[in-house]
Amino acid sequence: MAVGIFDSGLGGLTVLDAVQARLPDEEFVYLADSANAPYGVRTADSIYDLTVAATQRLFDAGCTLVILACNTASAAALRRMQEGWVPQDKRVLGVFVPLIESLTERQWGDNSPPREVETKHVALFATPATVASRAFQRELAFRAIGVDVETQACGGVVDAIEDGDFILAEALVRSHVDALMRKMPHPQAAVLGCTHYPLMQDTFQDALGADVKVFSQAGLVADSLADYLARHPDMRGQGESALLTTGDPGTVSTRATQFLRRQMQFTAA
Fold first, then answer.
1. Out of 47, 194, 221, 252, which one is annotated catalytic?
2. Known catalytic membership, residue 154
């Protein structure tokens, strides 16, 4: 049985790594749309079309449940997919859900009116497309009031990580944190709104300071998925574990191996 995990590139491997550790007996099919990455600079319609195509590929591979381990796809395409495209016997979930659950300290199924929460000043670091969608603010507003969210579009960081240039990625992260803190000098919490960013979490934390609580998604998604599958065992689907890419399998395998520091072997999607 297999659960599908999709990302535009390699960032979702941070989620794959976490869910494999959390659910060692589960099968996962990971699809990286490397040929079309990055998504963060694309239009909403382009992101939607590409995400639908990738999700359908995972359905075809036997997955009943697909996790969009890509904040850009979750922000720009998920709601539209759920409202008009996802078949009744399938499920597509995004990565904002566990993050906002943790930030607001309430369960996603809690539909009570929004209420005051302890954290009032939140910095959101994300791709330009995620920032432009305002999806994070919209979902947060359903559950919390009085929270000031300051966003920072982190151009170039995903490309540097995908290229394995972590010196450049660190410099870019520090520059983006500086820009954010000129707008919000004293954030209480920072949300890393891209699944690539956990690889730079120490840099974000160092640049922000020890007093800022940094929320990263991989572990939160893994815990949320474990809970979801316990409540919906029929969503596990059929199929065997696989690593798929729309890009060159050799190149992606090499970069993925460097990315997670363990052997990764991709095949063509």
1. 194
2. no
